[in-house]
Sequence to fold (144 residues):
Amino acid sequence: MRWMGRLVGAAALLLGAGCARVDLAPSGPALEPGPGEAVVYFFRPNTLLGQGVNFTVHEGDAVLGAVAPGTYFRVVVPAGPHRFHAETWGAAAITVNLGSGETAWVETTLDGTAVGLAPRLERVGASRWEDVRRGLRRGELVRG
Fold:
């Protein structure tokens, strides 16, 4: 499975040529949106369900980042509609329409299904982000 982690890492490096900028570094300046851009935070509260399950969030074929329990990452994207998706034993997708300079928060969780744990992506407000952000650490890409 180490090859899978390397593949995900390589995909993230190639993302630099795509339309989204990903902020996964543990330190340094945060990415600020430019004119015509918006920010999306993806976060996963630290819950007991799915402690050993990490999953990646994608837009199209591009890997944007990975979420594990208690982590977050943020991306800067062009304003407009974006369809984000994630997969484990099931799949989830969400379309988020963003205005220039807007910030959006997408909470990621896992739901139990008959065949395993499936991701859930839900757009939430700033108040939900404020409730959980102090317990989160910046996420990194999954390494095998």
User: Anything to note?
Assistant: Confidence is low (pLDDT under 50) at residues 1-29. The chain has two helices and ten strands. The beta strands are 21-23, 37-44, 55-59, 62-67, 71-78, 80-87, 91-98, 103-112, 117-124, 137-138. Residues 2-138 form one domain.
